[in-house]
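Quick illustration, no need to memorize.
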Amino acid sequence: MKHALSYLFFICFLFSCRHDFEKPTWDTDIITPIAFTNLNLSNIVKDSIIQFDTLSDNSLNLIYQKEIINYNFDSLIHLKPISTTKNVKLETINFSNTTVTHSITMGDLISSIDFGTILFPDGGTAVIPAYSDLLNEIFPIDANDYFEEMTFTDGYLDLTIENGLPTDLNNVVIELRNEEQTNNIITMNIPLLPSGESETSTESLAGQTLFGNLEAEVISADIVGTAPNPVTINYSDALTAKIVIRDIKLQEGIAVFPDQEIFDEDTVVAFDVGDVKLKRVLVAEGGVEVVGVSTIQDTLKIEYKIPGTTLNGQPFEFYFELPPAPEGGSITETKLFEFSGYEIDMTGKYGDTINTIYTESRGWIDSSGVVTHISLEDSVFNTITIKEIIPEKAWGYMGKDTINESQELDFGDFSNFSGQFDLEHIEVKLLTENSIGAKANVRINTFKSTSDQNEIVLNSDVLFSPISIGSATENPNSNPEVTPSTSTLVLNEVNSNIDELIENKPHTLGVDFELLLNPDNNQDDGFLFKDYGVKSELQIEIPLSFSGSNIYLKDTVDVSFSIDNIEQASFTLLAQNSYPIDAEIKMFLLDQNNMVLESLLSEQIVQASEVDANGKTISSTSSELTFAFNNISESLSLCKKIAFEVTLNTQPLNQFVTIYSNYAMDLKLVANFNYTLE
């Protein structure tokens, strides 16, 4: 221990001296394992559409799945926008019968006589003498509480003069006119109007205009008198003029109008969807747009219903108001109401039609108690547009339709296998699923495999007839909501040249197909759901028995080097191989961006395993491959990954080899470094 401490002290002393002394250096060799990997087909193929099944004899069966047709018929039942426009003019203007009265009381008359209240006191008894022209006056009649102006197309004015005075009247002449106008509306001549009786005169109002300010002029009304009989004087007794405007039909008016119904009608909206016969539709997207234009100077209220369109049992309906139009102008309002999620009954009001929506609409004006102008020239321009309906689901006859389409599909999974191989057996299934409530036929017109070198077209008698698929089954309120109908077409090396298409290692598969919906034209109770259609999937099953040469497989492992000043180095790859296949291996040093820094080759190969008479491995073989290199210290410092490229060649050549699930190739990479310590 004492000698060891002395030695350590001596080393420290040397390193602490000035730099004028020569620094010592050491050369050293390091041998260390830096990477491990296990190569087998199950974990080399990373694509989720490729699977491996282990068969009963423990050999591997490669299963590859690729969707080649996926067609939805959503566009088949898009319901294009459809509009209904109504220009509604007021056919009638409702206005109630109006009564206006005006009275001249006994007290008014007595007050106009000199000393009248003394001669004829209220409640007293007196003989009323005869008077002439006592009632000659103009008195206003105010109807502004009912109207300011009305022009009539029809109607009548009844003027009733009721004599409630205690004396008869004679030579009664009364005129009724608009205030400060000379044209009379009505003139009454009553030779004798006994006390307690009345007279009525009626005049047509057709074509006439009445204003709220009316006046009645008594041209003459003579008091007959009661001599020689005294009568009781009651100042509240009166001569009354009663004006009744009735059975009115207005051209226009400025008045306090009662409720007005502008329109109330049912409309049938029929969609043109070709030969599709829809009974029900569940709406994914859709709505109703209303554009209302009104010249009415009052609030117009509009209610719109589609009774057969429901959500949770409640019908689709909306209500909105058009504000009063400015005088001499119009008001426009646009509203959009969504009915996504609603189910539409497309069989009309009585359930006896198809592709049809039944609607109800009503427009009205509530009595506001405010004087408003209304004219028969007023109108409501109302456009209701059912926006494009994109169904989530549809029920009925889906129509007969033929789709022709060509697709080119990426198939790089097999093109990644460089080299040549020959498959002993292959089975390809074309599995077609129909998720539509209607029968379908699929005809494959052309199916081809395209690689960089060749284009091979599938030849098979089984393609001469279309693939017929039954209708799918709906599962209401269940998951899944649709059970597809399926059909399977099997292609193998016996009934086709499908093996040649796969051995071609294509980068694309081209398919030209024809899809026929409802070929029998008789599926009246079908259905079509959004995102459901007809799809075909290619299922390739390959028992891994093949012969081949120069087939490439690749794998990559992460590494990290932290050694500088490497003078000489090499890698040793220790391989334990249970595949009956020789393998050549190249190594590539990669940086963090997977860029190649160095390529390393070995003159040795990995030897194939030993096999029995049936070609099955009986023992694995060990191989040691050396990869020498010089002056790559900088590349090693940048190296983050090492990629292995394995080239396979079956042994014996031209003999089919079966691959079993327990086959693997274990690789252990060992670094041999000679570097200098300073």
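The mean pLDDT is 82.
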